Amino acid sequence: MKIALETLGCKVNQYESSAFLQGFLERGHQVVEFQEEADLYVVHSCAVTSKAAYQTRQLLRRARRLSPNARIAVVGCDAQVDWQRLARDGLATHIIGSEEKFRLWDWLEEPGDFDHPVVAVSDSRAYGHLCPLPVSRMLGDRSRAFLKVQDGCNAFCTYCVVPYSRGRSRSHPAAFVAEQMARFQRAGYREVVLTGIHLGQWGRDLEPEAAFHELLQQLDRAQRPQRVRLSSLESGEVTPELLKALETLDWICPHFHIPLQSGDGDILEAMGRPYTPRRYAETILTLRRRFPQAALGADVIVGFPGETERRFRNTYELIESLPLTYLHVFPFSPRPGTPAAEMSGRVVGSELKERAKALRDLARQKKRAFEETFVGRRLEVLLETRTSEGLWAGTSENYLHVVLPADFRAAVGEIVPVRIERRTRQGLLGIPCPG
């Protein structure tokens, strides 16, 4: 059977899709590109924004146009939270929720059609232990691997649908994480990204309870690739114990993504975020002091209900004052069923676009200033792909985009030492140097 798989959303989804792909191949099926004719299409969906939900529906409609008689399955977060609409609109033959997707093949064997789809969606509040998903290779990525160590979230921020789509926070035991890390190392990966829906909550549901820094210390004794990157941590989870561990574990990349969402105290409170602007600033300044070369990134939401011009300026000025090196800027996207979707005072239209643009312009300035401090210095670059000009392109340990001369002899997935010559339109130009 020809099967096409498309994945939307987070690194956790990408890890899980790699497990699905592995299962398809082990059963002897042929995996084809999503734009090709297939017998089965699987859309691994995301629901974190309205745009992600829209993209899910686009893919489902595209699949039906390509192969009107194929089975079409939508799985994961959007299927979990909006299954009734998906069924009503006749967009899939199988609608499979966030827990049920780990028995994907069992549900696909059930007969369904667009008028009467198979719906396998249970209450996310009742989700139990995580299903172990051993993965040998990542879907379509030969340079780095993502390793899911945790799923779900207990925070219930007022704008976020994730606790409803993925359930409460649950962790893989350290032994499983170490086994999967070794599996990726044996497969030849030189970088692994530890990822989760709420990574810093790892271990709090285990018996006995554990903390994230303890997982890192256990991995220090395990077989692992050359370097490990952390995906995202909340500011309150950057504890003295974690900082001490990070300073002693030189295989962890100096790259820390600490979501901000807003730099205004009133907006943070309305969001249900458990910190103040001052507390967030202290975390970022501590990280910069202890890791001078680290990339420091943040997520920011603009246009949240109640965000006046003054409150937006508070966010802008806080970011401007901090040594952040990049931003992910998101216009507020109301998600059905969340408290924020019912709040008044949303910012829309040209004002929303102008605020997002202002933050993105600020982010470009900060990124440029950070890049310039590394001209003339040595970095370790993971080679990922070729640019349209034929140059090698990759990522340094501290999350800088680096290009290398086209004639450099190497392979995707290698980590090479380079000396940064200058900034270019394509990125920082690096010249290979002796290790």
TrEMBL record:
SMART domains: Elp3. Residues 139-371 form the Radical SAM core domain. It catalyses: N(6)-L-threonylcarbamoyladenosine(37) in tRNA + (sulfur carrier)-SH + AH2 + 2 S-adenosyl-L-methionine = 2-methylsulfanyl-N(6)-L-threonylcarbamoyladenosine(37) in tRNA + (sulfur carrier)-H + 5'-deoxyadenosine + L-methionine + A + S-adenosyl-L-homocysteine + 2 H(+). Its EC number is 2.8.4.5. Keywords: 4Fe-4S, Iron, Iron-sulfur, Metal-binding, S-adenosyl-L-methionine, Transferase. One of its GO terms (molecular function) is metal ion binding. Residues 1-113 form the MTTase N-terminal domain. PROSITE patterns: MTTASE_N, MTTASE_RADICAL, RADICAL_SAM, TRAM. InterPro entries: Elp3/MiaA/NifB-like_rSAM, Methylthiotransferase, Methylthiotransferase_CS, Methylthiotransferase_N, Methylthiotransferase_N_sf, MiaB-like_bact, rSAM, rSAM_horseshoe. Its cofactor is [4Fe-4S] cluster. The keyword Transcription does not apply. Catalyzes the methylthiolation of N6-threonylcarbamoyladenosine (t(6)A), leading to the formation of 2-methylthio-N6-threonylcarbamoyladenosine (ms(2)t(6)A) at position 37 in tRNAs that read codons beginning with adenine. This is tRNA (N(6)-L-threonylcarbamoyladenosine(37)-C(2))-methylthiotransferase.
